[in-house]
Design a protein that fits this description.
The protein is mostly helical. It has one domain. 68% of the residues lie in helices and 0% in strands. The chain is built from ten helices and no strands. Helix 1 packs across helix 5, helix 3 runs antiparallel to helix 4 and helix 4 crosses helix 6. The longest helix has 22 residues. The chain is globular, with a radius of gyration of 18 Å.
Length: 221
């Protein structure tokens, strides 16, 4: 049990690193949460400080999820604190726990009053290593929805929904044998619901027509 708590705690701390707040303060001396949408995420950094800094934040946030499953999880291989009754090997189960812990850390970061981003980039970094094909489909959905609607939040919500749908369709309609499907699917549904939950205010603004559209520009003045 100590090993499980250690895995969760280290992954949570990794996910808690508030890249958007750090970069905005280092680059412009501001707290990104006091500008734009008030969200501590890469999209808001793009909106307020421009693409270069915003994309840097998105990359670093995705890296947190990737490092959780690639590096932190491997530190605990061979120390499973419980009987693994899933069809996954021990490493995959540990990676799932580590990745979700990192996403939770990003959303509720201990380093910024438990008010962080919405978890999209960190979840993307985690899932790219666990379900690569389905995550690439989700990224395609995100790009398509944002390109058409100019709503990043809507793209994020559709992407979150598309991940478990892609798993279900590939496994049950196209008869693709996805290892550990029945174990992986509930985790992905929970993670998708968590990401959608963090967009609850955006959903309200979308329904009322008050959500801000993302304006693509080369340079932030």
């Amino acid at each position: 049990m100590i090993n499980l708590l250690g895995l969760i705690f280290i992954s949570y701390l990794l996910g808690s690193i508030p890249n958007s707040i750090i970069i905005s303060k280092m680059a412009k001396g501001i707290d990104i949460r006091e500008h734009g949408s008030g969200n501590a995420g890469g999209t808001n950094v793009i909106r307020v400080l421009g693409f270069k800094l915003g994309l840097s934040v998105i990359f670093l946030d995705a890296l947190k999820g990737a490092l959780a499953v690639v590096v932190v999880a491997r530190l605990f291989v061979g120390t499973m604190p419980f009987n693994n009754a899933t069809p996954f090997d021990d490493l995959t189960v540990i990676q799932i726990i580590a990745g979700i812990s990192a996403v939770i850390g990003h959303i509720w970061t201990i380093f910024a009053g438990f008010k962080g981003g919405k978890g999209i980039a960190t979840a993307m970094g985690m899932l790219l290593f666990l379900i690569t094909v389905d995550m690439l489909i989700a990224i395609g959905v995100f790009v398509l929805v944002v390109s058409i609607s100019r709503y990043v939040s809507l793209g994020s919500i559709f992407a979150a929904i598309s991940v478990p749908l892609a798993l279900i369709i590939r496994e049950n309609i196209f008869q693709v044998n996805i290892p550990g499907y029945h174990t992986l699917l509930p985790f992905i549904i929970i993670l998708s619901c968590l990401v959608i939950f963090t967009h609850r205010k955006n959903i309200g603004r979308l329904l009322s027509g008050n959500e801000s559209k993302f304006i693509f520009s080369r340079k932030k003045k």
